[in-house]
Design a protein that fits this description.
Blueprint (H helix, E strand, L loop, with lengths): L10 E10 L5 E9 L2 E7 L8 E7 L6 E17 L2 E13 L1 H19 L3 H5 L7
Antiparallel strand pairs: 1-2, 1-4, 2-3, 3-6, 4-5, 5-6
Amino acid sequence: MENLRRSQPRIPVEALCAEVAERGDQFGFVVDLSANGLRIEQPLAGRREGRIVQLEFELPGVDEIVWAKGEVCFDRLRRASPEAAVRSTGVRLVAAASRHLRMLRDWVMAAAAAEQRDDAFALAHASHWRG
């Protein structure tokens, strides 16, 4: 799998995510977001079917579910405890609705700017779509 250099900010988050596959949905958490990708953590549940994944995830603070297709850039196992392993997967987004891609880009840029200002309130409310 390709090792990509990160040139855009990554924002740590805790958001629900589902990987939609023929064998059924595999649920997990988005643990960081960038304008063009994300990292998800899921309980280990067998082998991944391929490099292309269909994802459904929440954009934090936005009442919107993003549907996207992505390419797996890395897929690592991490021991969460002696009895359990967690799959950590980096995904580069390759397709989504243009509206969702704009929302993701704007959210990440606003969150990165708030993080640079060390503005916890602005970081918690990084989206102008929030009601």
